[in-house]
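Tokens in:
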């Protein structure tokens, strides 16, 4: 509960370097204090080494948690945590990122202030520019440069909540009886995802349209599971296929589920699943034809914070061209094919292409799989062509690159 409060205080003092550092340090120490207390009390559990040992083994493989151990030593024994206030500037044009740079900025600079500087420079240059400029203002540590620091704290909280929950189960206690804090969301109830905090960076990114000069920001929406709606879904779509925890094997079941959506609704919307073991986080996406797809994928990955997912599965509809033109992929003449669903997906701007379902699976160790299922709409229903199943990595679209950039360089597939 103290750690939970510390994270709120760190977010609230994000532009105050002294207060931010103070609450950051407190959070790091409190996260370690939980595990120290458990270890001190381990004689209370006969099976302590089993459940705590399993948690400890997983923690040793988590770069954020190992950073937390060394960070506490640096804070308490050596020196205050060295933090770096940075602005990350990215330019997206077409569907992909074209430029990215990182600058050290004064801690009191807000994302709006940084954006206004670039907007003024763009207006004075007189050059006709196109694309979207994304501005991020983040705190990072020199020993954990890949993650924004509040996202690191949230990952530490998730891990601490997990081991406390294990301790409760081992004790036969469902919930502590500690009184709540004055902050309404802080009680003895464990919510490892901290839904009380917004998704994404503590200081939300700003987007600047270089052509119009208009600025905006990302909007995230969290949808909680609804058991009543889940039962409605079973009636509408049927029983879903069984999914495995391996993303490569998971891909085929995801394709089958996309078919169920397509046949029931007439479309199968873009979805991105990020996977870690048996845990999965689902994100709904929507793309316009000319939209910066890589930008949306990057924002989605940022929404996962420092959670160390090691697999991803992307599913959507797409267009595919075959020699001979429209209808060849599904063995139906063009005259028999109905128009595509234009409510959620754009029309075929190039012409003579077939619709298809696509599922792409990626893993941190470099494995990949791309499934493409051509289909056509007819008066008699959906017809399918021959499935394309590729493991080479050559068919992976570049706009998914924010996913494998979170993993070691050697794990990246060869994007098409």
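Residues out:
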């Amino acid at each position: 509960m103290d750690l939970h409060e510390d994270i709120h205080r760190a977010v609230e003092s994000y532009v105050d370097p002294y207060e931010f550092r103070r609450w950051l340090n407190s959070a790091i120490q409190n996260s370690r204090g939980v595990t120290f207390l458990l270890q001190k009390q381990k004689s209370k559990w006969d099976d302590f080494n089993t459940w705590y040992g399993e948690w400890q083994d997983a923690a040793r493989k988590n770069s954020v948690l190992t950073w937390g151990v060394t960070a506490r030593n640096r804070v308490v024994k050596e020196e205050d945590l060295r933090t770096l206030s940075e602005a990350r500037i990215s330019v997206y044009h077409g569907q992909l990122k074209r430029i990215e740079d990182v600058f050290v900025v004064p801690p009191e600079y807000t994302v709006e202030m940084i954006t206004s500087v670039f907007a003024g420079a763009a207006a004075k240059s007189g050059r006709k520019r196109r694309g979207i400029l994304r501005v991020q203002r983040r705190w990072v540590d020199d020993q954990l440069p890949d993650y924004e620091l509040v996202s690191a704290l949230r990952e530490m909280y998730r891990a601490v909540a997990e081991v406390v929950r294990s301790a409760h189960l081992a004790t036969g206690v469902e919930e502590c009886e500690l009184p709540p804090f004055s902050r309404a969301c802080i009680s003895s109830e464990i919510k490892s995802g901290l839904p009380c905090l917004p998704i994404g960076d503590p200081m939300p990114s700003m987007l600047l349209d270089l052509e119009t000069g208009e600025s905006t920001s990302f909007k995230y929406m969290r949808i909680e599971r609804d058991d009543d709606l889940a039962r409605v879904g079973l009636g509408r779509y049927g029983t879903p296929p069984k999914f495995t925890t391996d993303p490569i094997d998971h891909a085929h079941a995801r394709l089958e589920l996309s078919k169920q959506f397509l046949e029931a609704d007439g479309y199968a919307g873009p979805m991105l699943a990020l996977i870690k073991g048996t845990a999965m986080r689902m994100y709904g996406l929507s793309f316009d034809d000319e939209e910066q797809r890589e930008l949306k994928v990057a924002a989605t990955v940022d929404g996962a914070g420092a959670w160390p997912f090691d697999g991803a599965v992307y599913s959507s509809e797409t267009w595919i061209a075959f020699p001979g033109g429209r209808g060849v992929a599904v063995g139906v003449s063009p005259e028999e094919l109905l128009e595509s669903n234009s409510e959620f997906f754009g029309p075929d701007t190039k012409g003579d292409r077939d619709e298809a379902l696509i599922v792409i699976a990626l893993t941190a160790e470099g494995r990949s799989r791309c499934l493409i299922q051509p289909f056509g709409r007819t008066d008699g229903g959906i017809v399918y062509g021959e499935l394309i199943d590729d493991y080479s990595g050559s068919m992976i679209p570049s706009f998914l690159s924010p996913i494998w950039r979170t993993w070691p360089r050697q794990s990246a597939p060869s994007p098409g």
